[in-house]
Design goal:
Layout lengths: L12 H5 L4 E8 L2 E7 L4 E8 L7 E8 L14 H23 L6 H20 L6 H11 L25 H9 L7 H22 L7 H8 L22 H17 L5 H12 L3 H4 L7 E2 L4 E5 L11 E5 L2 H6 L1 H4 L10 E7 L6 E8 L7 H10 L9 H12 L4 H7 L4 H15 L1 H6 L15 H4 L7
Helix pairs in contact: 3-4, 3-6, 4-6, 5-7, 6-7, 8-9, 8-13, 9-14, 14-16, 15-16
Length: 465
């Protein structure tokens, strides 16, 4: 027959003073107890518990010396409440470790991130039709897993976070990792990195939640908040010098035509810039457009939705465009099947044993970086040195706002949300609605017969009536 625990009064220093020398206990739960071992001169705290999953084996761990003088927090001495709190933490951690070990190999952050990278690499490879390494993998290897020396890049040691086991992850672990990121890291890169890590951790919790504490999602959420308080580049901001007028957009398109012709792009570069300007879509969206997405009869382009978010989006977004845009795309659509990639470019290979390059085949645009070199020449010729390719998207959004389109429609056409539009384009929303607000102004002050009264002549005169 199991022995019944006889609990002692340990909650106050005065009560402990009356206890005899020896060990005395208070129950934490059915199989865990906080012990007070009283000596001749002083006492100490320790905890004893049965580790679930380990049969009848009990474990014991020291906590620290007791404050037997009073019940106030004292450096180096523990009150009953302090000892109880530490005891519960020790027991909870030990049981979590036992539970995690019983369910299989320990889920370290390294293992979780490596699994996530493999999934992202496989997904990106499927989308591009060839083996590629994802951007997420490159970021996580550099700032979490560490990487060996590569070319001119120095070796990067692994973050201490990589060795942490998921069941023992704390908010402090995540905040420490964030504080160790390089100061020069761009805000957009930092936010993408944080989002990648958050996705990896949440994915691991979803797959292994039966062996993890249900409070883990809250730890991940608060440890990896959307943006640090001192970060002002968490998303591409619409700066004043990134908004182009219709005349400036035309200058960009004219320069793109010139660069295309002189660089023997066969119209591929020009058509890409035309679609970016006409739709305001992201590069990743228009790179997936098909020939069938050009609907000339309806006067629109069907732009694939972005792959951001958790799904539930429409497959494509209809964006009205002018006849000039449709005419510019005629060479890319005439005589081609509807399933072919709308925007393609020539790919070249180096002639063996020579420094010359020759065209090999055509294929879709793949990376936004392919636009980087010709864009430098385009903006130089257009005399708009501050403009970036994303300026075409910013300008498209602002153009819709200034045309007094409903903000919800502007957001839908650009595959984003109303809060994002309001956050980054609030100034232009106010400017665009200024005329409407002015039209709502009505006279409020009653007229005094059209006379202009001089206050100095009225001072001291009696008022009528």
């Amino acid at each position: 027959m199991a022995q019944v625990l006889k609990e002692a009064e340990l909650t106050t220093a005065k009560a402990r003073l009356r206890l005899p020398v020896g060990e005395h206990a208070r129950r934490l739960d059915a199989e865990g107890h906080l012990y007070y071992r009283k000596g001749v001169r002083s006492g100490v705290w320790f905890v004893r518990w049965r580790n679930w999953g380990e049969g009848a084996n009990y474990k014991q761990a020291p906590i620290g010396p007791a404050n037997d003088t009073n019940d106030k927090p004292t450096e180096g001495l523990l009150t009953y409440l302090q000892a109880e709190a530490q005891a519960r933490q020790i027991v909870a951690k030990a049981r979590a470790e036992t539970k995690a070990a019983a369910a299989g190999p320990a889920l370290t952050i390294r293992l979780i991130v490596e699994t996530y990278i493999s999934e992202r690499d496989a997904r990106d490879s499927r989308r591009k039709g060839r083996t590629v390494r994802s951007d997420a993998g490159q970021r996580l290897r550099r700032y979490v897993l560490g990487q060996d020396k590569r070319g001119k890049q120095e070796a990067v040691p692994a973050s201490p976070l990589a060795s942490v086991e998921l069941h023992g992850l704390t908010e402090k672990n995540l905040l420490s990792w964030r504080s160790e990121l390089p100061d020069g890291l761009k805000g957009t890169t930092e936010q993408r990195l944080i989002n990648d890590l958050k996705a990896a951790l949440n994915g691991a919790y979803s797959a292994h939640r039966e062996r993890l504490d249900p409070t883990l999602p809250a730890i991940i959420k608060h440890g990896l908040k959307a943006a640090k308080l001192d970060t002002d580049e968490a998303a591409p901001l619409a700066r004043e010098n990134h908004i182009m007028s219709a005349t400036q957009v035309a200058a960009i398109l004219g320069a793109a035509r010139e660069v295309d012709t002189e660089g023997n792009w066969d119209g591929d570069l020009f058509r890409l810039i035309v679609v970016l300007a006409a739709t305001g879509a992201r590069f990743s969206q228009i790179a997936r457009m098909k020939v069938g997405d050009v609907q000339r009869a309806q006067g629109r382009l069907m732009v694939p939705s972005s792959r951001k978010g958790r799904g539930g989006k429409v497959a494509s977004i209809p964006v009205p465009v002018g006849k000039d845009v449709l005419d510019a795309l005629l060479p890319a659509t005439t005589g081609r099947g509807s399933d072919g990639a709308l925007l393609e470019r020539w790919r070249s290979v180096q002639v063996k044993g020579s420094i010359e390059w020759q065209r090999a085949d055509r294929g879709p645009w793949q990376f936004a970086s392919e636009l980087q070199r010709p864009w430098v020449e385009i903006r130089s010729r257009a005399k708009l040195p501050a403009m970036i390719p994303y300026s075409l998207r910013h300008s498209s959004v602002v153009r819709g706002i200034r045309a007094n389109l409903p903000i919800r429609l502007v957001a839908a056409l650009h595959d984003t949300s109303v809060p994002m539009i309001e956050r980054h384009y609030g100034r232009w929303i106010a400017d665009g609605l200024e005329d409407l607000a002015a039209a709502a102004v009505v006279p409020l002050v009653p007229d005094e017969g059209g006379k202009v009264l001089n206050l100095t002549t009225r001072r001291g005169q009696p008022t009528s009536g």
